[in-house]
What does this fold into?
Amino acid sequence: MTSPSAVSDPPAWSSCGRREEAPARSSSACRGRIVEPYQECLAHLDAIDRRDYLSLLGAGADVDHRGTAFSPELLDELSAAVAADTGQPAYGKADFREATFGGSTASFEGVTFSRADFGDAAFLGNVTFKRAVFSGEATFCGASFRRPSDFATAHFGGSADFRQATFTGKVAFNGAAFARSAHFDDITSVIQTEFEGASFAESAAFRGAKFSGDGSFFEGCRFAGEADFGRSRFTGQVDFTDAHFSGKTAFDGATYSGRVSFARSTFGGQANFRHAEFAQGADFGRVAFLNDLDLCGTTFTGAADFDRAEFEGVSLVGPLICMATLNLSGAVFSLPVTVLGAARNVTCERTRWMATALLRLRYAVVDLTDAVAEYPVSLVTHTRAFTDARTRVPLREPFGQRRTDHRVAVRSLSGVDAAQVCLIDVDLSGCRFAGAVHLDQLSLKGRCTFADPPGGWRWSPWPARWTPRRTLVEEHHWRHGAGRREWSGAGGGEPILGPATLTAQYRELRKAFEDGKNEPGAADFYYGEMEMRRNDRSTPQGERWLLALYWAVSGYGLRVSRSLGWLLAAMATTVLLMMLWGLAGNEPKPLTSGTQAAPGQKILLRTESPAPANPRGPLVGRLTTDRFEKSLRTVVNSVVFRSGGQDLTTAGTYVEMAARIGEPVLLGLSVLALRGRVKR
It folds into this structure.
């Protein structure tokens, strides 16, 4: 191949040298190879000499017209000279290096070449090689195509070399067949490139190619050997729909400015997308990866759609960066797989894992609706930025500067068999659990957070602050729908669950926490379960009143402050009642009386205690320190089922009896609530 800088140098062949300006090369001397035995090139031969030369040619003749400037008429004359019996031109070895094809159209349609060399040729007008047959090697290295060029249904029996070719106009290789290796390295296409239906029997190299046009279409192409698109650049739309890659495929370092489609394509060999950049959406829907897939450092600025893709031979996906949604809905993973990625959203609706899976993600909001896990699936928040396994260089996370929290949030576990799911260090504050089965067997490890109640004060039935606890987002939606606007509402189209369903969810999650030896966490879900039972209209009225009393007195045995508050209030009330009416107004002293008989006879003595007298006088006068001390001693003893031994009035006796029944219960509830918070 001749370098562009060498075009102005003297040619390596005997040239015509006619002193007139060549339109394509802007040279003062004609570079066309002389036609022996004449001294001019084919373009400058007079009519008689040209006719004599052409008459000596025939079908399959070898021609050498390097550097010659062809007009459409001259090319037609040459084609007619090598025409076969079928009427189609047939060349042997055709050397058109640095030739110039001017005029509106240069037609090689249906032409047969045993071997063709168009290296550094210039096609100034339209050119067609439609249905052309290249039996041997075909070389177009460094050729420039200024207007549309058509290689549709062309057949390349030998190697095809288009390295460093430039396509300024639209180029079409629709249905072309490449029986040997095809090289398109470093080509430049600035309009539109079409390879629909092309087949490559051996390797196809597009490394470093530049496609700057409206679109590059490789729809339905078949690559039987290796396909190398490494470091290629695509500015417009790229379409590899229904393409089939049998061998190793490389798209490493490729950049795609437009939307890309690999829909329904098949990768039989290893697929390499290392550090590729997709500026807009990339469609990998229904793609089949039968071998390894390398997505290390791949960046998707738009959505990455792997809907219903089949990962049959893939054991590692990523680490990749997705600025929008990584869609794995309906995808099937046949082998144990690890998915590494930093993404804004990860959708795994109806995703099927036929073996164990580990999802190590950052920043993502994950939707696992109706996912099928035949083996354990773990979802983990990756704490550090991902690194390239080869270079150990951290991958750049563009949205990391705007989001300080890299924790993964789960949006939905609806329809999932939770027995196979393990969540580690994830945010469940917005997760919907409706429809999940075996929720009691869900494994929660690390710091898994749930939604909090509203902040501030509530005014029913009395002013109080909301008590912090773990809640389900479905409870938020239900309370918001019931008119409690301080709770968060459901999004459009999301069903609102009733208390009966929420009761079952809280109960199952409570058991999951208990099985995980997290008793304090289980206590919050017990509270939620009791809340939903209390608010469930299907619960019998008597049971609801009992639950309401249980809630008001001790927060279902889980609120230490509430039960202690009631205990102190009850004790204070009892002390006050004792001081006012319970303690006797007198201090009755035992009185012994008897009769003394004659000497030597028995003496009969009788001891009687006077009945405690009700206190008299104004009520304020009964509030003395002495009466307070006696009342407090009596009340404290009543809390632990002991009698204070104090003389009480009839009213005081009944007050003490009530205190000895109620206050120990409140003390027990306080101890129970405290134990629920510290139990291990």
